[in-house]
Design goal:
Blueprint (H helix, E strand, L loop, with lengths): L4 E6 L3 H13 L4 E6 L2 H9 L10 E4 L8 H9 L9 E5 L4 H9 L4 E4 L4 H18 L6
Parallel strand pairs: 1-2, 1-3, 3-4, 4-5
Length: 141
C-alpha cells in the first residue's frame, strides 16, 4: 500500500506544474498537492499553517521564482525550528554551480536539474516520488 503524502510544489512555470501533476497522477502517488506560484506565496503558506497535520511531507522547489527566490524560501524553511525537518528538493532548470552550492549551503536535501524532454521530466518526478515516499524514512508529523 502506498503512503499518503502531502507535497508543496513551488513553481511558476505552468507547463512544469501540469507535468508534475500528471506524473503524480500517472504513477498513482497518493497525496495532496498544494501549488504556490511564487516565493512569497510559499512563505505565506508556511506562516499560515495552523497545525502539524497540515505540514507538507515534501517540498518541490524551483530556484527562479517571482517575488522571492527559491533560495529565500529554502532559507526560511531550513532556519525555522518548526519546518526545518521537512525534506526540500530543489527541482530547477539551473545547472549553475553557484546555485547548486548555495542550495546545499542552505541545507537543501537534494538538487535535481529538470530534464528538458517531457518523458524524462515525468520519469524524474516518478523517481523522486519513489525515493522520498517508498525508500526514505521521514519523521512522522
Amino acid at each position: 500500500m502506498m503512503k499518503s503524502i502531502n507535497i508543496l510544489l513551488v513553481e511558476d512555470n505552468e507547463g512544469d506544474i501540469l507535468l508534475t501533476t500528471e506524473a503524480l497522477e500517472e504513477f498513482k502517488i497518493v497525496n495532496e498537492l498544494t501549488i504556490k506560484r511564487d516565493g512569497q506565496a510559499a512563505i505565506d503558506f508556511f506562516k499560515n499553517l495552523d497545525g502539524i497535520e497540515n505540514y507538507p511531507d515534501l517540498v518541490l522547489l524551483d530556484i527562479n521564482l517571482p517575488k522571492m527566490s527559491g533560495q529565500e524560501v529554502l532559507m526560511y524553511i531550513k532556519t525555522s525550528e518548526k519546518y526545518k525537518q521537512i525534506p526540500v528538493i530543489m527541482l530547477t532548470t539551473s545547472s549553475s554551480e553557484k546555485d547548486i552550492l548555495a542550495s546545499y549551503r542552505n541545507h537543501v536535501n537534494c538538487y535535481i536539474t529538470k530534464p528538458i524532454e517531457v518523458l524524462d521530466f515525468m520519469k524524474a518526478i516518478a523517481q523522486i516520488e519513489d525515493f522520498w515516499i517508498n525508500i526514505v524514512t521521514i519523521p512522522n508529523k
